[in-house]
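call fold(seq) -> tokens
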Amino acid sequence: ASFLRNAIVSGKLMQGERLSETSIQKRFGISRSPIREALRILEQEGLVVIFPRKGAYVNEITINELNDTTIVVAALEGLAARLALPRLTDKSFKKMLRLVKKMEKEVKNFSIHDYTKTHNDFHETFVLACKNRVLIDSIGKLRRRYVRPMVTSYYFMNNIEDAVKGHIKIIDTFKENDPLKIENIVEDHIMGALIKDRDLWEKNLAGGNEKKGQ
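ret:
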């Protein structure tokens, strides 16, 4: 399950791609029973969809799912930032700053896959610091559903520089030590990406679905 999850989130397994039990069986040298259990786990996480008599496929992201998931993630990460505020250390701030500088380089090099991972690492830094296991697990599962290279590629088409600046603003706001302000800034940062790029996402997602249907 972990191997397949990472492959989906990293973009190695593409949206709509069929997950062949035979291929997975050959790769790991295991029976089909644990493979099917892994696929059921990923189905519950929203990463895989299983069709009777057809098999398992990597779940495709729709604009409705992006809307719904982003709204929930924004609220939960805002809460996580507020809870994390008194727990962040100098080491945490240095790590976030280092990740922002890494993101800047990845933007210049158009490294979509690397940027996706670095972006997730940045948010994970303060999410883990909140120390609320239920919140951490919930955010992790939701982020895996839609923070993938395919979605990141839309950021690279539009407003990617603003996205990087937004992460610098998060660091600066944390340093102000205002719980409500950091909660609002993080929530606005995540929702802002959806609002700014909604038309672009709709155009690309609709276009992809039309091509698949032809």
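The chain has a mean pLDDT of 84.
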